Amino acid sequence: MKYRSTRGSPKLLTFSEAVLVGLAEDGGLFIPTNIPVLPENWRKDWSNLTFNSLALEIFSLYIPSEEIPRKDLEQLINKSYSTFRSNEITPLKKIREKFYILELFHGPTFAFKDVALQFLVLGATSGDTGSAAIYGLRGKKNISVFILHPHGKISPVQEAQMTTVLDKNVHNLSVEGTFDDCQDIVKNLFADNPFNEKHHLGAVNSINWARILAQIVYYYHSYFQLIKSLNITMESNAAKEIQLQFCVPTGNFGDILAGYFAKQMGLPINNLLTSTNSNDILDRFFKNGRYEKLKSENGKFVKETLSPAMDIAISSNFERLLWYLAYNDSKVQEEDKIKEVSKIVRGWMEDVKTNQSLIVEKSMLDIALCDFKSEMVSDQETLNTIQKYYAPENRDQISYILDPHTAVGVAAADRQIISPNTIQICLATAHPAKFSQAVEKALENFKAFKFESILPKEFIGLLEKEKKVVFVEKADPSLVKKVIENELDTELN
Ligand SMILES: *Cc1c(COP(=O)(O)O)cnc(C)c1O
Q1: CB 250 near ligand 1, within 6 Å
Q2: Model confidence at 121, in pLDDT bands (50, 70, 90)?
Q3: Which pLDDT does position 31 carry in this prediction?
Q4: Residue limits of the Tryptophan synthase beta chain-like PALP domain (predicted)?
Q5: Cα of 252 to ligand 1 centre, how many Å?
């Protein structure tokens, strides 16, 4: 198993190399040379595995043991998830008949990105686990971490979680701009060869392959939890007849792309429901085959919503799906197919750069619609959904407090029930206390609701703690480079 660029560079990389460099040298994203198939008896053999053991099995399909010995991989996984507050790591909660919430927020920062980042960051920095693996960094004690975030555009808790880390080697840059500006700056830093070589950049941003890989695990884990919750066996007809839809609040298309890989590997998923907030480039794509950056009334590409982690103008992982759509649509013979497909992808990415849009053939959109459905959810509907799930009308439904991102997915799920037999699993991507403003706004008229009752002890006093953050007054790559070099000077002297 090796990794190739979506844009056709003939260079194939190992897993470790792909994870370390993040982005391919031709600007493409890494995808595996093939999507591995599941072992024949996966249903039986995997059904009682813990999250960690399941992760080991799935990672092993993508990472050759000659590259990272199984023992080392196992240690890395165990260490990664030891910081989670739930034994299940990602527990599945039944809300009502045929409707479940998959809680992905039991990691250190109370959001789903922990599932992948705990693995990736530890992987990149733990030379001492003896892993021969993610390790260009091995032995180097001096790893500096730079985190860019858009100034004032993340929730107060998110901001405090990052900026109250006072370690010398952690640097928060608060950039006057949007998420997309921050992503563009990171891309720019990577494309700057002298800068990249001088500092040996490694990216843990959303396009890193290891993040997608780590996220595949919870699709499987939730499936096994579901079978248990239904009190049926893996081999039963009842299990075979399940119609399963995953509902995923989506921004950069990383979380749901992991579901796509899970499905291509053989997990019986009927639909992946992409749910966007009013930054709806993906929803529009799935409706008309046109992927187009549009300016809103205020002349900006990004709208600020109640679900800020999904406020993006373009979805950085979408290029990977585009590659597979072109691949599955191509009639070209196998030897030339990869070249042909990469050429199409390059053309599309050029189109986005020059015309702010790309259009796919109807046949390709049809291929996408075999796996995906989509919805867009407004802020008002997000608030209504939080209310509706806090105080359910249905007596058999439990009361549940949704964070605004999760609510976007849940609202879409309520619209898109494919058949009466459909079982839905909605991914809960953050703890409600992390995005407290939206939750408090939604529930302000419920007298019984006390925000303190859902506040994790880790959040108490967080906002008042000492902070370490550098303000960058303009979303300008050369300014950011200057700030980084200044920071490094201070850190290392
Ligand atoms: C990042 C994030 C999302 C969106 O996930 P993508 O992989 O970018 O689609 C949704 N909700 C929360 C809370 C997030 O942090």
Answers
A1: yes
A2: low
A3: 98
A4: 121-334
A5: 7
**What's CA 75's distance to the chain center, in Å?**
23
Are the C-beta atoms of residues 382 and 439 closer than 8 Å to each other?
no
Measured by CA distance, the residue closest to atom 15 of ligand 1 is: 309
Q: Could you tell me if the CB of 254 is within 6 A of ligand 1?
A: yes
So what's the pLDDT on residue 203?
A: 66
Q: Is ligand 1 within 6 A of the CB of residue 310?
A: yes
pTM equals 0.90
DSSP state of 34: S
Q: Is 232 helix (H, G, I), strand (E, B) or coil?
A: coil
CA of 219 to the centre of ligand 1 (A): 15
Q: Which of 2, 94, 113, 353 is catalytic?
A: 113
**Which atom number of ligand 1 is nearest to the Cα of residue 255?**
7
Is any atom of ligand 1 closer than 6 Å to the C-beta of 183?
A: no
| Radius of gyration, alpha carbons of the chain | 22
For range 222-234, the mean pLDDT: 96
Annotated active-site residue 94? The verdict is no
Point out the ligand 1 atom lying closest to the alpha carbon of residue 312.
Answer: 8
d(CA 394, CA 472): 49
Q: Which stretch of DSSP H or E encloses residue 53?
A: helix 51-62
Q: In this model, does residue 298 exceed pLDDT 90?
A: no
344 residue type, one letter:
I
Which atom in ligand 1 lies closest to the alpha carbon of residue 254?
A: 7
Looking at residue 182, its pLDDT comes to 87
Which tens digits make up the pLDDT trace of 188-208?
Answer: 887 888 888 788 777 667 789
**CA dihedral over 479, 484, 487, 493, signed as positive or negative:** negative
Cα–Cα distances in angstroms (integers) from residue 338 to residues 259, 326, 334, in the given order: 23, 10, 7
When the pLDDT of each residue in the chain is averaged and rounded to a whole number, the result is: 90
In sequence order, the β-bridge partners of residue 470 are: 173
CB 113 less than 6 A from any atom of ligand 1: yes
Ligand 1 pocket residue status of 321, Cβ below 6 Å: no
Task: Give buried/exposed letters for 335-359 (b at 16+ CB in 10 A, else e).
Answer: eeebeebbebbbebbeebeeeebbb
Q: Whose CA is nearest to atom 14 of ligand 1?
A: 309
